[in-house]
């Protein structure tokens, strides 16, 4: 990186000066077990945090390796991936995680001194680090790679001890707030899923007497299209019947701006910012290119959605699009994916997918209940984005003397 004049007492260091870079564990598919050592992969890093997932893999305890077993304030980094947007993403262990190691496509960055641990996390979540990774990514081949030496040679400014301690305290407080908001949003997502499952999977939506429909003896009828019983009066339809499916105009990465006002969503969710938007409302989009094909994302209001994502726009605007977001979990999305070298989803393949079509009054009652949950989620997400912006803007301001930490 190009070095600039720093405030008095600051100096440039390489990551190798204050941290160790540790490899992940290699394993074969037939080594995977149902329990044992949890192996974290790139998908476990979400918004800068490590999240344990239902589809995590486990290895036998013979794979135990003390070095790459996660410790408090370790940093997990994606070192190899098929997507440039994912390369280098970092998640810090802000809470104790027991019996977890990282996979071979990951790296651990562990502070040599606990006094530097929070500052290292701060740096690895900064724009300075991600700009460095983007420059390196041009050296990849068919898969994007960063090796240990790339990470070890990353240079960044290190402040005097007293300033570093104050930055670390501020950063930790901010991260705890972001983490709390993230957990709240996860709980809200779980609430929305539970509501959908209760109403449209178990069919125990409130009947006319306020009792759970199926459990209270509500009439069920076999539907030959769906090949299962559904509540009387409900029907089967296709995704194309229920939604308008379309891919908006794609913009290039060179058109995006880190200072853009509006979010840009592609195959991997949020991919950048732009000075224009093409959708005013929060939409449900499905990744339709690459390894993330079929993944569902909810956009923020006033966003630009690119052609690498398929918009699933519910035709009846009185129905919350959270219904279709949840409904896709029970569709055969994988069966609609084509292409070997480059997986893709097309409108022609998605439109015929079968789904359940409840009575209109049931859908509207569900929408009334789920809408406040979604609005609260979006509000929390917006708050977290503001806090993240504060975090990301601190380092440049400290370096050029715009702010001081006391």
Mean residue pLDDT: 90
Radius of gyration: 24 Å
Task: State the helicity in percent bands.
Answer: 25-40%
CATH superfamily of the largest domain: DNA methylase specificity domains
Instruction: State which percent range the strand residues make up.
Output: 15-25%
Number of discrete domains: 3
CATH names the topology of the largest domain as: Adenine-n6-DNA-methyltransferase TaqI, Chain A, domain 2
**CATH first level of the largest domain: which class?**
Alpha Beta
Second-tier CATH architecture of the largest domain: Alpha-Beta Complex
Outline type: globular
In short:
By secondary structure, the chain is an alpha+beta fold.
Write the layout of secondary structure elements.
Elements: E1 11-14, H1 15-18, E2 19-23, E3 32-33, E4 37-40, E5 45-46, E6 49-50, E7 57-59, E8 75-78, E9 80-81, E10 90-92, E11 100-102, E12 106-111, H2 117-124, H3 127-136, E13 144-145, H4 148-152, E14 155-158, H5 161-200, E15 220-223, E16 228-231, E17 235-238, H6 239-242, E18 243-246, E19 262-266, E20 269-274, E21 284-287, E22 296-298, E23 303-305, E24 309-314, H7 322-327, H8 347-350, E25 354-357, H9 360-399
Parallel strand pairs: 4-11, 19-23
Antiparallel strand pairs: 1-14, 2-12, 3-7, 4-7, 5-6, 8-10, 8-12, 9-13, 15-16, 17-25, 18-24, 19-20, 21-22, 21-24
Helix pairs in contact: 5-9
């Amino acid at each position: 990186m190009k070095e600039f004049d720093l405030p008095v007492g600051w100096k440039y260091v390489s990551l190798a000066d204050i941290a160790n870079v540790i490899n992940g564990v290699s394993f074969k598919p037939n080594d995977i077990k149902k329990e044992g050592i949890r192996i974290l992969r790139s998908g476990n890093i979400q918004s800068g945090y490590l999240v344990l997932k239902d589809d995590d893999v486990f290895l036998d305890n013979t794979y135990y390796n003390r070095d790459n077993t996660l410790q408090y304030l370790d940093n997990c980094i994606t070192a190899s991936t098929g997507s440039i947007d994912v390369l280098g993403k970092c998640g810090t262990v802000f809470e104790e995680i027991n019996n977890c190691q990282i996979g071979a496509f990951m790296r651990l960055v562990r502070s040599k001194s606990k006094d530097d641990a929070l500052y290292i996390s701060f740096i690895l979540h900064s724009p300075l680090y991600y700009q460095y990774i983007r420059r390196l990514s041009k050296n990849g081949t068919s898969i994007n790679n960063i090796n240990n030496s790339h990470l070890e040679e990353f240079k960044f400014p290190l402040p005097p001890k007293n300033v570093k301690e104050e930055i670390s305290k501020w950063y930790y407080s901010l991260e705890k707030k972001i983490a709390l908001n993230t957990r709240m949003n996860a709980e809200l997502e779980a609430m929305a899923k539970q509501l959908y499952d209760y109403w449209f999977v178990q069919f125990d939506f409130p009947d006319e007497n306020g009792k759970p429909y199926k459990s209270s003896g509500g009439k069920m009828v076999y539907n030959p299209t769906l090949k299962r019983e559904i509540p009387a009066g409900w029907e089967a339809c296709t995704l194309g019947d229920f939604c308008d499916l379309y891919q908006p105009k794609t913009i290039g990465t060179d058109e995006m701006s880190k200072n853009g006002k509006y979010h840009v969503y592609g195959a991997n969710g949020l991919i950048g910012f732009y000075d224009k938007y093409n959708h005013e409302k929060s939409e449900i989009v499905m990744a339709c290119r690459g390894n993330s094909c079929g993944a569902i994302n909810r956009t923020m209001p006033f966003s630009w959605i690119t052609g690498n994502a398929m918009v699933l726009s519910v035709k009846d605007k009185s129905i919350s699009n959270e219904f279709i977001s949840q409904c896709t979990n029970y569709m055969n999305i994988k069966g609609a994916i084509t292409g070997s070298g480059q997986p893709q989803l097309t409108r022609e393949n998605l439109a015929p997918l079968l789904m359940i079509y409840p009575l209109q009054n049931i859908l509207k009652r569900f929408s009334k209940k789920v809408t406040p949950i979604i609005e609260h989620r979006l509000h929390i997400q917006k708050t977290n984005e503001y806090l993240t912006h504060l975090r990301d803007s601190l380092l440049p301001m400290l370096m050029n003397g715009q702010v001081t930490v006391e």
